[in-house]
């Protein structure tokens, strides 16, 4: 034990001697710097960084310009790296000896010599952290970053250390009153708040109330979104009056109401009547509320979206607001609703005129046999008679329509009205560019297949650019795959207008359920491919193909589609392209996709029950031979199993987004100018 003590004392004494020797060497190195010009250079004592930090003044200016003694006159600034390193090392030695005051003086000297370098700021900040003075350290780090802002972070390790040293202090010292930020940033921050949350912000302080209600921020009050999270009205009448006054002339521009109890009738009426410049209105299931219909109150309304109850009368509480819409018909451009009035089924004259409407999404409620107030009566339902919707007569009410979405729950479309349009087919929606049919329910109960015939008629409009057809029922394996083929006269002898459908403007055809025969698809797409218009197409493989033979034959018949340069999006649904070969070059789907030079998006939905190993192998091969950016994959395979994890990692390595769902249908569809 005695030997250990002696050894320890000897080592300590040696270490002390070495430290003292190091201090002497660092001091000599400082004095050897050319900036001293052979004389002894003392530290300037005129600078008071503690006072500057406390008063919030510029640390850089204090280091750069403050000097009333002879040091500033006799010596210049010095950014010699060896000089600064010697000072920093000596400061670190004093820090190790727990002489923080002397360490701080050397750090201040570094700052005095080279105020444009990050070294002094970093050393001063680190010492302040040791002294538990985090605010001083934060200001010192920040001053160093500002003083070196013209220097790239990656070019200086010390500057990077300065940023890293400041990061732990962000949470405590980087906070500020958001209203002190530029007006544009304030508006951006508070635009994420609902109107009820914005009202709470007025209670923070007088400054917030005065600023947020000033004319500069009137746009914050022009978007009113109400939800009934707490099962009670969000706004009172007084709240609405206050909001309208803050919104300025014209009141709210956007109103969205969700939930049956989100607001009262008096609140809704006041809000609408006080918003003469309203442009966007959206509401869901306002069971006991109705929109004002006795006068025209919205002069600039362009977009309306709503759901109504099938049991409520037109213009009544919770019913279809037909008169309100008619009053806004001259400006309305976008209409999206669920709940077709019964009168629209029975009388064409009951459909109001909307001359400027560009997009229409029309849906109905799911048919319930026990429900009494539906577009058809119990007697009709019992007799097997089905009320079909006269879709073609909408071309009279909406003559300038550009985009049409039929569904959900509009499975039965009337075809007999086509007879009226045979001689004036060119007048049927001459500007329609988008057609989407998604009934969300089976059309198999349609005894005359009128709905299928009507859809085929609609696709004959030559102005169409985007077609999307979805059906819930199984297709006729004989007729439907050939609906766009040359044998239309055999399948649909009454469709004489199909001879005019050239699809020369077609840009996309989407369907995850409709199995088209390759010859029919070629007949439909040939003109669009020739003109370079086609950008997106979906291939649906034959259903219940457990062996994969039908899928292979189906893909081989799409040989004519290979390598089309204009295609950037493809969909493959219910595919079961099995291969016994162990060579990836023998996999049919990857090799097929590899022929498209500009393919960037793939939607893939393999046949249910396909082995995970086969699917994973196919996906990895696709990633290798294509330049995809996004893959939409809908499969029964669990995304957390080992194979799929490997696929996801491979996708990330190649910069490909792998999304475990179907690609959503955009609405409205972006149109090329």
From TrEMBL:
Residues 175-224 form the F-box domain. Pfam families: F-box-like. It comes from Claviceps purpurea (strain 20.1). This is F-box domain-containing protein. Signal peptide: none annotated. InterPro entries: F-box-like_dom_sf, F-box_dom, LRR_dom_sf, TPR-like_helical_dom_sf.
């Amino acid at each position: 034990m005695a030997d250990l003590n002696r050894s320890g004392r000897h080592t300590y004494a040696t270490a002390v001697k070495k430290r003292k020797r190091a201090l002497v060497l660092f001091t000599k190195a400082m004095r050897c710097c050319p900036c001293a010009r052979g004389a002894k250079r003392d530290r300037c004592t005129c600078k008071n960084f503690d006072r500057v930090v406390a008063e919030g003044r510029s640390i850089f200016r204090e280091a750069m310009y403050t000097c009333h003694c002879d040091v500033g006159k006799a010596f210049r600034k010095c950014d010699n790296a060896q000089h600064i390193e010697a000072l920093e090392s000596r400061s670190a030695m004093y820090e190790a000896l727990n002489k923080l005051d002397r360490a701080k003086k050397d750090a201040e000297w570094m700052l005095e010599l080279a105020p444009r370098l990050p070294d002094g700021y970093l050393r001063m900040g680190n010492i302040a952290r040791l002294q538990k003075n985090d605010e001083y350290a934060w200001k010192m780090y920040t001053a160093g970053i500002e003083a070196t802002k013209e220097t790239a972070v990656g070019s200086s390790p010390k500057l990077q250390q300065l940023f890293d040293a400041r990061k732990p202090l962000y949470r405590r010292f980087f906070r500020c009153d958001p209203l002190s930020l530029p007006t544009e940033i304030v508006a951006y921050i508070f635009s994420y708040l609902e109107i009820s949350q914005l009202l709470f912000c007025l209670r923070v302080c007088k400054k917030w109330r005065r600023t947020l209600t000033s004319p500069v921020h009137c746009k914050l009050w022009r978007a009113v979104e109400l939800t009934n999270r707490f099962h009670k009205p969000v706004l009172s009448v007084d709240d609405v009056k206050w909001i309208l006054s803050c919104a300025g002339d014209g009141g709210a521009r956007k109103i969205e109401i969700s939930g049956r109890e989100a607001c009262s009738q008096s609140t809704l009426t006041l809000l609408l009547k006080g918003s003469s410049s309203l442009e966007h209105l959206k509401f869901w299931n306002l069971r006991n509320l109705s929109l004002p219909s006795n006068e025209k109150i919205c002069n600039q309304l362009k977009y309306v979206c709503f759901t109504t109850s099938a049991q409520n009368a037109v213009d009544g509480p919770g019913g279809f607001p037909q008169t309100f819409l008619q009053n806004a018909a001259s400006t309305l451009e976008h209409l999206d609703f669920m709940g077709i009035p019964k009168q629209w089924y029975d009388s064409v004259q009951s459909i109001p005129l909307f001359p400027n409407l560009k997009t229409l999404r029309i849906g109905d409620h799911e048919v319930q046999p026990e429900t009494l107030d539906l577009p058809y009566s119990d007697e009709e339902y019992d007799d097997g008679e089905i009320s079909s919707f006269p879709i073609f007569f909408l071309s009279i009410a909406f003559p300038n329509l550009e985009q049409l979405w039929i569904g959900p729950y509009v499975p039965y479309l009337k075809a007999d009205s086509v007879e009226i349009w045979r001689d004036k087919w060119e007048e049927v929606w001459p500007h329609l560019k988008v057609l989407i049919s998604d009934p969300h329910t089976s059309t198999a109960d349609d005894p005359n297949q009128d709905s299928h015939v009507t859809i085929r008629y609609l696709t004959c409009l030559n102005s169409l650019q985007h077609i999307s057809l979805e059906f819930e029922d199984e297709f006729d394996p004989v007729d439907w795959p050939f609906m766009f083929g040359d044998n239309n006269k055999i399948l649909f002898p009454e469709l004489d207008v199909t001879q005019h459908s050239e699809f020369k403007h077609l840009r996309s055809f989407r369907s995850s359920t409709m199995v088209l025969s390759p010859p029919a698809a070629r007949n439909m797409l040939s003109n669009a491919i020739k003109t370079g218009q086609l950008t997106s197409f979906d291939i649906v493989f034959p259903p219940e193909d457990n062996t994969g033979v039908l899928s292979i034959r189906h893909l081989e018949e799409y040989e004519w589609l290979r390598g089309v340069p204009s295609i950037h999006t493809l969909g493959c649904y219910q595919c079961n392209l099995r291969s016994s070969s162990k060579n990836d070059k023998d996999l049919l789907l990857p090799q097929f996709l590899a022929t498209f030079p500009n393919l960037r998006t793939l939607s893939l939905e393999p046949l249910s029950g396909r082995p995970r190993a086969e699917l994973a192998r196919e996906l990895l091969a696709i990633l290798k031979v294509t330049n995809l950016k996004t893959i939409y994959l809908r499969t029964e395979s669990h995304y957390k199993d080992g194979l799929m994890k490997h696929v996801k990692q491979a996708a990330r390595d190649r910069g490909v987004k792998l999304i475990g769902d179907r690609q959503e249908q955009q609405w409205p569809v972006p149109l090329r100018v």
